[in-house]
Write a structure and sequence with these properties.
Layout: H1 3-21, E1 25-33, E2 36-44, E3 47-56, H2 70-86, E4 93-101, E5 108-112
Parallel strand pairs: 3-4
Antiparallel strand pairs: 1-2, 2-3, 4-5
C-alpha cells in the first residue's frame, strides 16, 4: 500500500477515536458504493453522521479540509443516500468533515459539524 494510503488509514483511525471520545458510536467505516465511499458513518443523539476524513502530514500546502471538493461532496451525498436506503435510516442525518494533521501523536484534529448541506450543493457552507 502506498504511503499516502497508510496515512489516510491512520487519519481515519484517529478520527474514529476522536468521535468515540466525543460520545459518538461508529456504525460503519469505509462504506463503499461503487467508486463512492464514506470514511466513517457514526451516530450521536439519534443523528446519523457521515464523516469525510482528510489527513495531511503537515499544513504546508494548506489545510486538509480545503481539499473537500464539490465533486467529493456529490460522491459523499450519493453514497449516503445509498446507505440511508439500505439501512432504513429514518432519523436526521448530518455531513461532517474531520481534518487530521500529523503522522504521530499529538495529531491536530479539527471537527467541522454540518460542513455541508446535501439539499443544495451550491449553498453548502465552505469550511
Amino acid at each position: 500500500m502506498a504511503l499516502h494510503n497508510d496515512l489516510g488509514k491512520l487519519g481515519e483511525l484517529v478520527a474514529a477515536r476522536h468521535l468515540i471520545m466525543q460520545g459518538y458510536s461508529i456504525l460503519d467505516r469505509d462504506y463503499r458504493v461503487g467508486h463512492r465511499d464514506i470514511d466513517i458513518v457514526a451516530s450521536k443523539d439519534g443523528t446519523v453522521v457521515f464523516v469525510e476524513v482528510k489527513t495531511r502530514r503537515s499544513d504546508s500546502f494548506g489545510e486538509p479540509e480545503e481539499s473537500v471538493t464539490d465533486e467529493k461532496i456529490r460522491n459523499i451525498i450519493s453514497a449516503a443516500n445509498a446507505y440511508v436506503q439500505r439501512n432504513d435510516v429514518r432519523g436526521p442525518v448530518r455531513f461532517d468533515v474531520i481534518s487530521v494533521v500529523g503522522t504521530e501523536e499529538p495529531f491536530r484534529i479539527k471537527h467541522f459539524e454540518g460542513a455541508f448541506n446535501p439539499l443544495s450543493l451550491s449553498n453548502y457552507r465552505r469550511l
